[in-house]
Give the backbone structure.
Amino acid sequence: MGATGTSGPVMDRDEVDRALARLGAEHEAIETSLLALQDHAGRRLLEGAELTGVTEERWAVTEASITLLWTYFDAYTDALRTARDIRARRRWSSREDLVELTELLRGEAVTVAGGATAVTHAPSPHGGAGRLSTRYSLAALVDRMNELYAASLDMVVAADAVWSALPARIDLLAAELQRTRTLAHSVGVRPGEHPSGDDLERITRTLTKLREQVVSDPLAFWKPAEGSSAPGGGKPDTTVYDREARALEEVRREIDAVLTVRQDAEQRLIRLRDVLSRADRTLAEARTARGEVLAKIAATEVPVVSGPPTALQEQLTTAAEYRRQAQWHRLSPLLESLERKAEDELLRARESLTAVTAPLAVRAELRGRLDAYRAKVARHGLAEDPLLVERYDAARRMLWSAPCDLRVAEQAVLRYQQAVAELLGAPRVPGQGGPEDRRGDAAAHRGDSSV
């Protein structure tokens, strides 16, 4: 290969030709990439936009990097042209030509003015922004251009992605917001009068500010992909947009509820009046029943029956007034509250009636049990048994007299049950110690043995 210089062994003609072919292909690829970056829609938007914040800072660096890229590319083009010219001098290059080509293709033979690097604010790999010039090898220059190109493309693609995604979505949401505001106004949902009206005002302010920020500082709304080194790796940050979209959806549901109130308010008021009327009738029935229980049942604590709540009637009157004045936003929550309270009131009235009439129900159960056992005795032909007749009559007098002592009457029914069970040979009634009378006496009255 001959003597060795600063660039290593002298290249032969085949090595030179292969290197020139490779460098020519790289030159074409770099030129295509730079032209594509120059024509990129995001770059053109960045050039004409009034930027702020992070985007303004990064665009200043990126714009300088793009300028420097073209400076590097021009130097690369000149060096490649010079190398091609030297190779074209002779079909068979002389040793002097090969030495010169080796130095040009492998050595640091490309000089870039240091002022260009310093002016563009782009970081220099040699760290000397104040130097008059910087020398590169063609390979180092390609690496440097690839580095600057990737960083520039990443910034341009990220800004373009945010601009392509968020402003249009914000505009659509703003249009939906305007329709919702118009609808809200028609049903009386206004700022200062209804929480949803205040929410609409807040969402409007937030969306207006968000759009301004997205347009002037798109990179503030960019989330780089973790672990990705590819240019433009990431996605727009839609956190604020998504939050406001959810808030608007909640307001829209509230407005729909108010609209529903406007459509069926009259029917709901009628149902409310009906429920409260049923509750009042049930309470009246409970009060009547309480008087009956106090007259017919002795030694029993009967709960006091309260009167109908006047507050519900007043709220019902207010609801009717809201409907007459078309104050739907006020009527909606009031109706929902009244419907819950009315159902609770009806349930309370029914529970009161049940509690008041419980002694009568107990008496009725004891009467039914006594008659059922008497019928059972009759089927077995024991209806005329003196002991059973005596105990049946005693229990019946207690249950059909007023006031009735339920505790004493229950014991009388149980004694009758026990007597029937013993006559029929059945086990004793649970919880009873047995009859107080003598079965032998009953048998003696009949003059024969037991059945």
About this structure: The chain has four domains: 4-158, 165-261, 268-356, 361-441. The chain is about 70% helix and 5% strand. Strands lie at 4-5, 8-9, 110-113, 133-136, 222-224, 234-236, 297-298, 404-405. The chain has a mean pLDDT of 82.
